[in-house]
Design the sequence.
């Protein structure tokens, strides 16, 4: 056996290749075709993962294979392809079950994404259980998708939307949250991770507080599942939502997890094919879970793509992903905090994936345009969380959001980009 | 490839840092509010119209460098003009920021010609035109908030 010669890296990097615990980020980057492309003549630095993540080859291939070799409608055909598509769709649901440790596949409803999942709960569970004078409790750091569906419900029912405050760091003030859990609170809906601030909420404690008063909790997990191990049974939450496209799967599909006894008692969301077991003009009997909530032909390719994303994440290991990403986000936090004239928005004790910031005397929109010229993709604006912007007294932020394929070199590119912004506006 | 210097010209940066007529107008008889929900730009334009003539104009609010500089330079460009002249100027300006061309009307634009670089940055057109849309609303006496979306 010969010792391999040390080959000098062809890329200039001030950072040693992170290979701790078998995490080889350069190898991972090669799994994502889009990361190899240039943007405006520069190497793409994709830091808009909280808006949507990029897709690995395994996901793209699974979707292509489905449409090239496996496409058929599910649940109703006796032919080979229909059976194949049905079985692959089922396997995708099993993959989701394992990924978030749901007790049973019947507790997992395929939906278009987190937005639809929350609307489903508001319009079924909410419509039955929330009446005039009742309350729905959310927090001040929610995405519009975890505000507006509840507002619609409250307007319709004459109920009240209560909002638990956050502190200047962007942490939920747990005591205030607990105080707002009142005798009229019918449901609490809370983000697991804030998309605008990166705050990780103490879901286990939140659920315990709510359950002491028999109040169910919906957790918006859209920004959590790409970054950390989620176990819905350990959290003991009543509903949990996720969006495939934020966790390296395709757009257009997501999952609502709900405890079986709650889903059983809820009326259907939409009527149509697949959600019934028998139909006459006099009476329709609804299908069993999860199909009761899945009217119409589902996004089979989307489910298969999501299944492929989960298989990909499992192969790397979500704990390794979380550990590596934490290093990169900490590095970004440290570097950006050290820049004069840069202020971080959201400095909660525990954060994941997101570094939101403002630059003195420069509007975030101008920051975004100048960084874009450097090939750096970030998001600027209110991040569908206008109440948070009002809370911090700013019109908008610039937000760099990370995934496990991002590197410290890319953080350095961001820092250099910010310095360039400051030069333009000097 | 678009060049940043085409967008962030010195004059634009200078106006964004020290906007002209950046105040409420004490004797305004018409005003309107403009909002770009995408990035949070938010301006109020005040005008004092005598008959057909824009006697005085001011604006307040917050926004990106492009929207603020555009508002500032707009106030200088339309002061003393008739409503029809202001509308004509907006049409030419709009053509400039969307196409980079203003045909034979370029001379009318004067200093506003520095905004031609905006056409290379399509997502920023709304920033450059927000104040102008708001001015039109003020001149037409529209009450509702103007949105670029």
Sequence:
């Amino acid at each position: 056996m010969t010792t391999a010669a040390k080959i000098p890296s062809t890329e200039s990097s001030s950072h040693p290749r992170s290979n701790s615990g078998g995490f080889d980020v350069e190898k991972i980057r090669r799994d994502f075709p889009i990361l190899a492309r240039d943007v405006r003549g520069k190497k793409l630095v994709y830091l808009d993962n909280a808006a949507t993540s990029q897709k690995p080859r395994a996901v793209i291939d699974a979707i292509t294979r489905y449409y090239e070799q496996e496409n058929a409608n599910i649940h109703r055909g006796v032919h080979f392809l229909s059976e194949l598509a049905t079985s692959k769709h089922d396997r995708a649901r099993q993959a989701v079950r394992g990924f978030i440790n749901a007790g049973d596949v019947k507790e997992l409803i395929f939906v278009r994404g987190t937005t639809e999942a929350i609307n489903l709960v508001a319009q079924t569970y909410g419509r039955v259980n929330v009446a005039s004078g009742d309350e729905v409790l959310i927090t001040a750091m929610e995405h519009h998708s975890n505000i507006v569906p509840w507002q619609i419900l409250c307007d319709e029912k004459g109920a009240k939307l209560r909002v638990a405050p956050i502190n200047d760091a962007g942490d939920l003030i747990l005591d205030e949250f607990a105080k707002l859990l009142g005798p009229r609170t019918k449901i609490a809906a809370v983000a697991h991770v804030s998309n605008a601030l990166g705050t990780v909420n103490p879901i286990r404690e939140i659920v315990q507080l709510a359950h002491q008063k028999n109040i169910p909790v919906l957790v918006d997990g859209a920004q959590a599942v790409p970054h950390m191990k989620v176990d819905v049974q350990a959290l003991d939450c009543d509903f949990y939502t996720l969006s495939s496209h934020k966790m390296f799967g395709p757009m257009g599909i997501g999952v609502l997890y709900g405890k079986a006894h709650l889903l059983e008692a809820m009326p259907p969301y939409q009527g149509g094919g697949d959600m019934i077991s028998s139909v006459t003009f006099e009476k329709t009997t609804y299908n069993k879970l999860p199909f009761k909530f899945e009217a119409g032909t589902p996004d089979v390719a989307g489910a298969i793509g999501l299944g492929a994303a989960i298989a990909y994440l499992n192969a790397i290991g979500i704990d390794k992903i979380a550990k590596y990403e934490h290093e990169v986000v900490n590095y970004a936090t440290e570097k950006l905090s050290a820049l004069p004239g840069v202020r971080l928005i959201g400095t909660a004790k525990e954060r994941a994936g997101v570094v939101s910031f403002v630059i003195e005397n420069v509007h975030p929109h101008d920051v975004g345009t100048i960084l874009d010229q450097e090939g750096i993709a970030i998001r600027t604006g209110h991040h569908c969380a206008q109440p948070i912007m009002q809370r911090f007294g700013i019109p908008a932020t610039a937000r760099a959001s990370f995934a496990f394929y991002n590197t410290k070199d890319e953080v350095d590119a961001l820092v250099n980009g910010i310095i360039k912004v400051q030069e333009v506006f000097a | 490839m678009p060049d940043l210097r085409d967008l962030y010209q010195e004059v634009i940066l200078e106006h964004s840092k020290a906007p002209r007529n950046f105040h409420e107008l004490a004797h305004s008889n018409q005003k309107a509010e403009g909002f770009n929900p995408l990035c949070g730009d938010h301006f109020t334009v005040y005008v004092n119209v005598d008959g057909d003539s824009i006697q005085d104009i001011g604006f307040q609010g917050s926004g990106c460098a492009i929207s603020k500089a555009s508002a500032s330079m707009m106030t200088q460009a339309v002061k003393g003009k008739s409503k029809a002249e202001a509308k004509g100027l907006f049409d030419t300006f709009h053509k400039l920021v969307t196409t980079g061309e203003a045909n034979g009307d370029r001379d009318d634009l004067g200093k506003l010609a520095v905004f031609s670089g905006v056409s290379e940055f399509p997502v920023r057109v709304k920033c450059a035109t927000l104040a102008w849309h708001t001015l039109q609303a003020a001149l037409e006496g529209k009450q509702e908030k103007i949105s670029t979306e």
Summary: The first helix of chain B runs from residue 4 to 7. DSSP finds six helices and four strands in chain B.
